[in-house]
Please model this.
Amino acid sequence: MAKETKTLEEKARQLLQERGVSVKDITKLVLFLQKKYLPELTLEEASESVDAVLSKREVHNAILTGIQLDILAEEKALIQPLQDIIEEDEGLYGIDEIMALSIVNVYGTIGFTNYGYIDKVKPGILADLNSHEDNHVHTFLDDIVGAIAASAASRLAHSYPDKAHEITQ
Ligand code: MG
Model:
């Protein structure tokens, strides 16, 4: 039993990696969100902010729950009609976005704005997760990754308060 016990954070990070998302992929999304407002932002600084977000229990819970549902959908193990809805990533479902909000909620209104924006534009890894090209289901993961990036960007906005007002616009 003890052998299998990983901390929530270790398990969440392992699952992200196994599902094809690296910390670097998320860091690039943070730079995408902040390049206009914090052009001097380094990869290292952005990466530290992603790590800080990945240390929060709310984030671990969302990662574990969302990825578990994605995996169950791939295995066709969900009850109908939920199976079809999640497998087909139906636009009107909306619970994947709600789960993502449990992450950005920790970081205030800038987090919501950033999440809405990146969810619309879908740069980088978010486009890959949304391609629906293979048999993988990433209905929950794309929103979770977008929310982690939006939250990391919001932390940075809060640490540069003189520029924060521009970021909310
Ligand atoms: Mg989704």
The pocket of magnesium ion is lined by residues 89, 96, 139, 142-143 (CB under 6 Å).
